[in-house]
Amino acid sequence: MSNPSTNDPVSELAGLLRGRRTVVLTGAGCSTESGIPDYRGEGSRERAKNPMQWRSFRDDAVLRRRYWARAFVGWERFGRARPNEAHLALAELESRGAVRGIITQNVDRLHRAAGSKKVVELHGALAEVRCLGCGAFEDRDSVQRRLAEKNPGWLASTAELAPDGDAELGQDFERFVIVACQRCGGVIRPNVVFFGEGVPRPILESAWAVFDEADVLLVVGSSLAVFSGFRFVKKAASRAMPVGIVNRGETRGDPSARVLVDGRAGHVLPRLLTLLE
Ligand code: NAD
Question: Residue 121: which residues within 8 A CB-CB, separation 6 or more?
């Protein structure tokens, strides 16, 4: 828990990280200031909806069509999101050698866009699409162009961006034409881990390799409600590895944290960067 003798938790966090090798675990809260909504932050109840489950996507062609219809609209904004001050500060901390790597639950690729080099994308990235049949990869922008050709005028409909690049549609998705794998004609999927799917083993192994190089864990913008992120806090606690958390509101990891900073990542991380100079 935070030391009550200091009034500035960010200075305290700097004290925790100084001279240590940091691994960072990020979640949706790291990207809200880039305009991508989270699931469990302030106001998310109003945005609440059921995220696509892996089995529904795989087994139900109607739901798959609905997914792509919404994703088609959502990508127009999601695909253009830019890194914010939090992403940039983390990239700078890595270039200085303080941050050893980032494990992210986000699927937006904004850490890479900010210049971070060692990034493990636990849940994949929406920028890639792959075929369920032959495994071929296609760039999401290319899929977007093909969808646009098949669905002229569709984007003119109004829609609100939802988490994970999805969107709420104001029109009938049954008229939406989906596209298939260019190589084999198979069903395509975004290269992300859906709810109900596990993190692929090689990805998890790379995440543990980054984790094992560090001696402090910094969580940024995650409620830690999802186990795939929470496991790193549990492991840190079991090793007596110190944990710092920067998040707006409570997280499931709070009882294990040495320092808690309740604040905006885009404000806190640049300050942290200055304090660590
Ligand atoms: P979450 O929505 O469960 O939690 C986000 C947390 O961040 C909340 O506690 C919220 O209060 C906090 N937050 C919001 N804005 C913040 C800010 N500016 N600074 C600091 N904290 C802020 O997110 P999660 O723990 O990452 O779990 C959600 C799952 O959904 C993840 O597995 C992820 O794959 C997926 N997701 C990804 C994105 C993305 O790629 N950007 C967006 C939404 C959801």
Answer: 104, 106, 107, 109, 203
**DSSP assignment letter at 195:** B
Shortest-distance atom of ligand 1 to CA 249: 11
Predicted TM-score (pTM) of the model is 0.92
Q: Which residues does a 6 A CB cutoff place in the pocket of ligand 1?
A: 27-29, 31-33, 36, 38-42, 105-108, 123, 163-164, 221-226, 229, 247-249, 251, 264-266
- Residue ranges in the chain whose pLDDT is less than 70: 1-6, 41-50, 157-171
Distances (CA, A) of 28 to 4, 21, 142, 178: 29, 23, 25, 28
Q: CATH for 9-275? A: 3.40.50.1220
Task: List all residues 6 or more positions away from 76 whose beta carbon is below 8 Å from its beta carbon.
Answer: 155
**Rounded distance, CA 183 to CA 186, Å?**
8
Return the SS3 of 194. coil
E strand or H helix at 118: none
Structure tokens given for 28: 């949706």
Ligand 1 centroid to residue 150 C-alpha, Å: 33
Q: How far is the CA of 54 from the centre of ligand 1 (A)?
A: 20
The predicted structure's pLDDT at residue 264: 98
